[in-house]
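Section handout 9: paired folding examples.
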Amino acid sequence: HREGEELMIESIIDTLQVFPRGLLLVGLGLVVLLLAKLARDLVTPYRIDEEVGEKQNMAVALRLTGYLAGVILVFLGALYQGPTLVGPEGFGFDQAYGQEVLRVFLYSVAGIVALNLVRVLMDRVILYKFSLEKEVVTDQNVGAGAAEFGMYVATGLMIAGAVSGGGANSELDGALIALAFFGLGLVLLGIFALLYQITTPYDIHSEIEGNSTAVGVAFGGNLVAIGLVTLKALFGDFVGWGESIAAFTIFGVLGFVLLYVMRFLIDLLLLPSIRVSVALSSGRNTGVAFIESGVVISSALILLLAI
């Protein structure tokens, strides 16, 4: 009994030591979210609160949710790199701890900037055949909002992977390495979107522009899945350009193959009496879209954790 009591007391002491630091990080996360919302308000020509509140615009709500989730994913990626942030060093906040907190904050701000710029990529490269802004804001197109949700989450995962590793000689080198691999991640995302369009029997642009929520949800889910694959490809310490780029390429190819095979197996095994592509396009079956999204995201999570 005495040994059990001693272990319990030690556990309580460790928790009390970590708690103040953890509480500070929770507060920092809330500050990052508020800054992200403020930045979004500044760069959008419409009032987000009015769209979500008075007009009950679900498409804008999905867009904002994906954006904020992407910001927090960046925050968590930067947090992972700092082992001293939540270590049981006591109640004090020394200089090293302060530097780690500042680094997480600066990476999070950079992520906010990147996520606001990536909307341009979505409009010009991913869904370039129509105005995403018009579809989401004016037409309240939920499918377009779902696709953008997936884009933001995928981008947040990429940035998290890019900033989570160590191995750089300095903070500047680390930032440049993260920027370079984030760029590679965006290239991978663009290629995946192109291949997704090629391997589907319908045109995702015309379907989403035609207010197909199902196609938008399925596309957004696949973007999240490839974002998880990219997180795996980018995650870890930098060991050299050659080895890191080779590992990134291998995981990228594996991810493309895995997600294509899983989409095929959904048709063949999980929903054998339903043609998924027909259910998504002609039938506009949102339930099938959620099933496809759940399966491909689950497959990407298995790849993330198993390899």
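Moving on to protein 2 of 2.
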Amino acid sequence: MEKHRDRTVTVTAKKIGINGEGIAYLEGKPVFVDQLLPGEAAEIVLLDSQPRYAKGQVVKRLNDSPQRVKPQCPVQGRCSGCPFMILKPEPQLQVKRELVQEALIKYAGLPRGKVQPVIASPSRLGYRNQCKLPIREERGRLVNGLFEEGSNRVMPIAHCLIHDPDLEALRKQVLALANQFRLKAYDPKRGTGLRTLVLRGFDGQYQCVLVSGEDSLPKEFIEKLKAIEGITCIMQNINPDKRTRQLFSNRWSLLAGEDRLPVQFGDVRLSLSCASFFQLNRPQALQMMRMAASLIEPCDTLVEAYSGVGGISLMLKEKAKTIIGIEFVPEAVENAKENARLNQAENVRFVCGDAAKEMKKLIRRTKIDAVVVDPPRTGLDGAMIESLRQCQPKQIVYISCNPATLGKNLKELMDLYEVKTVIPFDMFPNTPHVETVIKMTYCGSKKKLRG
């Protein structure tokens, strides 16, 4: 880094940003610096300077925060997966609480004290029940790993500490077998080769999905995969389009085993297809969903929007006479219906469609007493906000994975609703991500209802 010495500046990090980077200031402009904690000063080189912000890279750290620890992972500084691994556990929880507080103050004007302390995860390592790792070729051998920070280069991972240990052992076995059969990595020009290895499992049973181009995988390779203890499903997803950003296409082929994976989620039995979403930290997700369920008062009709495979709706089956889950993805809806039958939940049904449109249809036919929403990181769109405003359920429980969009959504509802409870959960230790459960109750219109 000596050649950059004439371009270095000295900064001190003041706080941590939403992506886990340190935030310092130069002449009032924020500078985002990876691997720098609040209170730490460093000589940095400016890599990117925009009118409203800049990015920097540490050349030399001048002091260490008392909250800093040596990361347990040898490639933590290069990998994009665990930026908080340099931070002690308790400060991690405090930072996550502050991230929620700052977002809700900024966007919704909620007082800082409204946000409760973060509920810690039962495990800090080995909690991920799924991996989705791109495959590349390096010196004639297949490797897989995570993208290097700020790049599209894949950095091979010898051992990932946040993966379930059995899942991690399985990953290494599958990759070794692929190399034994001299399989090739994805070639965008030919549209062939292995792109991504996806593994997911619970209680000793695992799905294995090989995302590839237009490939016919060797039968002997599949037979060897079947012989690996724990693999109950081998699926190929054919996705040759080099321009796509989607992990999966709609072209699936079951190569061996069962196409569903059983999982026990508290008192609920679920059966998951390979494409179905499920929380990556099952024990912590169970804590969070139980908390969400405890906030719901018994009622006649409850609607869950973005219901996925139906896990939350089925956990709530004793809370309402009728529960309706709404999900946009047809495969997830079919999976949810299977799960309702599996749990003999006759009062729970699922519909396929856009959440806002289906809510408006329901409003015309029935009075909705409670709504549970668990949207993607983009939060609730304008149409869904308007549906909630028209519906005016007495209670809303919002499960959020993005404090910023949560804050923006709350602002649009706070003339009708009072925020009663804000409980953050550390779903992904050693990362900056935080999930939050919000309880809102209807308090009557303080302003003229829009529309």
